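Retry 2 of 3 after timeout on previous attempt. Resubmitting structure tokens to design endpoint.
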């Protein structure tokens, strides 16, 4: 009840008088409590068609834990949407160093164009592609050598009468080897030793493995080590040949020749796949008026994705999606709300500009404005604070006292320059102030050390107040984020060409605080 929550503030002074009620109100109006999100599991279930998914590359080999978590979850969803829409082309907006793009390409065989405004990011993505190719070849080579060694050991340990002759290979099962998950037997590149052995190495389904563990009938199967399984899983999906589509008449060939021909085909396809499936990094600044055809010459039916698109880029991604008929779906996770441009923040600015907030007509009609302080607060991470990852109180205190110094000593109330991450490089408060003044191009010679420390001592006793104030901002953060996200969702609901749109919580908010995706399908 709004009336109840309003009691958290004094009616006359409008000051906060009931912190507990304030916290309850903030929780009540958070996205997790409003019931407007669609569970990720429901979305994946609805999108599930004939897609069997992919097994394979572990993203934590190429990126940190946070990025690995984000890429793994989002790429599975993107692949499901792409399969549902019957598309193979993906445009990654604000692709950065290409973590998501390269994973989508290598793991799911999607044709990905990664667009970033920073040439250094694009160049870094090119270099990363080069390293991935090198790693990919080494990965396959290591698997080949490991498997040969294991096959030799297995052959020496196993009685001759139990060896499997290639004539016993079930041709019918081979003809159905269309995926890495649903087959009873698959032939994987380099799994047949080339040193005269006729034994076939097979992978079993989880059902077979469970049955064998109960009956103890595993003596005829090769037990692959975890390392070899990782290597097998790392192969692209199309490294497994679809034998049923072959028009070659192999009726007169002996079984061994059939296997050799198929293995040659597998090696060729896997090599081409591993070298060609990396994505295409492009440098371009994306705005709401960007013509994708000018950047991507072979634009076809595709979907647009963005993993932590900064400021206005998240809003512009949705605008491009609604305007371009070729883009059939969008999955966008925004961030950096403090960098959003606001239509009603500075009324004197031009009104024909395309703004980041608000997007929907509902809030435009109300002339809604958040303001920079509110948008800055929306970037705070309540879930991280809740598990003990506290706010950087000391650095915030340093910055607050610095603000007082530059206003009182230098008379500066506004500057286009930024202090940046000076705190982490400073050995003391005095060092912090002097470094900051240099960045702001202010003369620090007129400010003795004693004066700097006087300011520090004057406000030191208020550090607890500052921490309490920032904790209140943390409580309020989800409510402000709700406003921004619902504005984007409402914008999509106002469009006539959208079949479905929703908000989906993709990530663990402790690992990745900006965890909500805006998803829509034409």
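Retry 2 succeeded. Sequence:
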């Amino acid at each position: 009840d709004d009336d109840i929550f309003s009691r958290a503030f004094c009616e006359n002074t409008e000051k906060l008088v009931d912190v507990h009620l304030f916290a309850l109100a903030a929780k009540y109006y958070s996205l997790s409590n409003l019931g407007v999100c669609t569970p990720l599991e429901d979305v994946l279930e609805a999108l599930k068609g004939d897609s069997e998914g992919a097994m394979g590359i572990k993203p934590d080999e190429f990126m940190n834990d946070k990025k690995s978590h984000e890429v793994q979850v989002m790429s599975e969803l993107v692949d499901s949407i792409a399969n549902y829409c019957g598309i193979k082309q993906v445009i990654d907006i604000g692709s950065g160093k290409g973590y998501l793009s390269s994973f989508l390409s290598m793991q799911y065989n999607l044709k990905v164009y990664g667009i970033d405004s920073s040439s250094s990011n694009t160049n870094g993505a090119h270099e990363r592609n080069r390293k991935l190719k090198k790693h990919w070849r080494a990965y396959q080579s290591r698997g080949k050598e490991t498997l040969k060694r294991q096959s030799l050991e297995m052959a020496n340990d196993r009685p001759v009468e139990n060896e499997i002759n290639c004539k016993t290979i079930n041709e019918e099962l081979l003809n159905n080897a269309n995926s890495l998950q649903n087959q009873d037997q698959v032939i994987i590149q380099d799994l047949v030793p080339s040193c005269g052995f006729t034994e076939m190495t097979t992978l079993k389904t989880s059902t077979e493995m469970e049955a064998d563990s109960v009956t103890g009938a595993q003596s005829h199967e090769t037990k692959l080590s975890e390392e070899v399984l990782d290597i097998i899983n790392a192969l692209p999906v199309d490294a497994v040949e679809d034998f049923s589509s072959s028009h070659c008449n192999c009726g007169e060939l002996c079984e061994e020749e059939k296997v050799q021909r198929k293995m040659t085909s597998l090696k060729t396809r896997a090599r081409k796949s591993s070298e060609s499936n990396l994505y295409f990094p492009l440098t371009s600044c994306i705005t709401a008026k960007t013509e994708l055809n000018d950047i991507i010459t072979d634009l076809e039916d595709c979907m647009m994705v963005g993993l932590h698109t900064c400021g206005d880029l998240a809003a512009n991604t949705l605008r491009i999606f609604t305007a371009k008929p070729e883009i059939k779906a969008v999955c966008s996770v925004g961030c950096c709300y403090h960098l959003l441009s606001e239509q009603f923040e500075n009324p004197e600015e031009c009104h024909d500009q395309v703004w980041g907030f608000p997007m929907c007509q509902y809030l435009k009609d109300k002339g809604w404005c958040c303001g920079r302080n509110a948008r800055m607060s929306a970037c705070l991470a309540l879930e991280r604070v809740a598990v003990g990852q506290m706010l950087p109180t000391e650095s915030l205190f340093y910055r607050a006292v610095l603000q007082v110094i530059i206003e009182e000593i230098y008379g500066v109330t506004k500057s286009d320059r930024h202090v940046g991450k000076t705190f982490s490089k400073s050995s003391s408060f005095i060092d912090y102030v002097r470094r900051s003044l240099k960045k702001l191009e202010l003369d620090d010679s007129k400010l003795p050390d004693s004066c700097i420390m006087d300011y520090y001592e004057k406000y030191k006793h208020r550090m607890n107040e500052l921490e309490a104030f920032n904790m209140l901002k943390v409580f309020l953060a989800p409510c402000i984020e709700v406003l921004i996200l619902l504005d984007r969702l409402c914008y999509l609901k106002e469009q006539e060409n959208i079949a479905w749109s929703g908000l989906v919580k993709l990530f663990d908010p402790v690992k990745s605080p900006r965890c909500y995706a805006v998803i829509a399908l034409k």
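Attempt log closed. The chain has 20 helices and seven strands.
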